[in-house]
Design a protein that fits this description.
Elements lengths: L9 H4 L1 H9 L1 H12 L8 E3 L2 H8 L3 H13 L3 E4 L4 E4 L2 H7 L10 H11 L7 H8 L23 H18 L14 H11 L12 H13 L3 H13 L19 H4 L9 H6 L25 H11 L3 H10 L4 H22 L1
Antiparallel strand pairs: 1-3, 2-3
Length: about 350
């Protein structure tokens, strides 16, 4: 049971407060009760059996049911009779964010907030909750709803569901240029972070904290390059480049390695590093001799005989070939297996030559 809750004077005089007043005193009492009752959760999504409401407010069950139906039409709160869970839609905004638009990821309380949100993933209204607060709470992809659960408000279920869907659609139509608000059109900033951490070369730094500044920057670049395919190709090209992997440093930049922050910035030429990387501008040769891995034209050949001949003729030792194959996108296990086969071929060539 929580010890306190935030109450705002605007509750009585704002748009919603005026709607409550028009509905009558019971609506005002019940609306305020949903924010301040001892069973409420500060995120607004919590278990609340109606008999408890009847007992603590002194209202009849019929009155409460009618008012909650009205609250759903107002998009103030939704109730599911099967699970007895209620979602007070704007409660998390008021109790957690207040006047702020977004949480501060540098605040230790952010991690605690994520843990609290994770506990709600199995609840009936969580998909709508996640969509509403994904950006403002910086919710990571790992907190996505496990499934679209069936949701059935007390009364007028079709109206309540239609209101939720229509609001989501209106929001998408208003922000069609933003990949951060429509997952069907592109990645979210946290999705970009997860994709980068999964696909990047091991030498490149892992993004561990999605700060507000990073979120803003990544969102800006996702508006320019919204597709997953674009970023996957950029990360492949990071494997292609010894320079971006820190293996071919230039004078004065001995410690440089590519990173997601670097990709989401511009070079001295004023061109975004992401597009230059994605287009293969940073491919090169490592140590002046080895063909530059995943960008190696011979390794990209569709003719398997050409690839084998390339490995047999252009390399003289297994270590160099192994390094080349790994840089070309193969796993260590796959590279080791292929090198063993090539080494057998080398031995056969030497035997025939003898």
């Amino acid at each position: 049971m929580r010890q306190y809750a935030k109450a705002f004077p605007g509750f009585w005089t704002g748009k919603t407060g005026k709607e409550f007043r028009a509905l009558g005193r019971d609506a005002q009492v019940l609306g305020f009760y949903l924010y301040t009752n001892p069973h409420a959760h500060h995120l607004g999504l919590y278990y609340l059996p109606l008999p408890t409401v009847v007992h603590e407010t002194g209202m009849s069950l019929g009155t409460i049911q009618k008012l909650i139906t009205k609250f759903a039409e107002m998009h103030y709160a939704y109730y599911d009779t099967d699970t007895e869970y209620i979602w007070v839609v704007a409660m998390a905004q008021k109790q957690v964010l207040g006047d702020d638009e977004q949480v501060n990821p540098n605040d230790k309380q952010w991690k605690g907030l994520l843990k609290e949100v994770a506990k709600l993933r199995s609840t009936v209204f969580y998909p709508e909750f996640f969509e509403r607060y994904r950006s403002s709470f910086l919710l990571l992809d790992g907190l996505q709803p496990p499934s679209q659960a069936h949701r059935k408000p007390i009364a007028s279920p079709s109206q309540a569901h239609r209101s939720t869907r229509e609001e989501r659609q209106e929001k998408r139509e208003e922000t069609t240029t933003s990949a951060d608000t429509d997952p069907e059109k592109g990645l979210f900033p946290d999705g970009l972070v997860n994709l980068y951490n999964e696909k990047k070369p091991p030498e490149c730094p892992t993004v561990t904290v999605l700060t507000a500044e990073r979120h803003k920057r990544y969102q800006h670049y996702l508006r320019q390059f919204p597709t997953r395919e674009f970023w996957e190709q950029a990360f492949v090209e990071m494997w292609n480049s010894p320079k971006l992997r820190g293996k071919h440093p230039s004078p004065g930049h001995e410690s440089f390695v590519g990173s997601l922050d670097w990709l989401c910035s511009k070079g001295q030429d004023g061109v975004e590093n992401a597009i230059k990387t994605q287009e293969g501008k940073y491919r090169g040769r490592q140590n002046g001799s080895l063909p530059n891995a995943p960008g190696c034209v011979k390794c990209a050949s569709k003719d398997p005989h050409a690839k084998v001949n390339h490995h047999l003729r252009d390399f003289t030792d297994g270590e160099a070939l192994t390094r080349h194959l790994i840089e070309n996108g193969r796993t260590e296990e796959s590279a080791a297996s292929h090198v063993r086969w090539i080494e057998d071929k080398w031995r056969e060539q030497k035997e025939r030559a003898a």
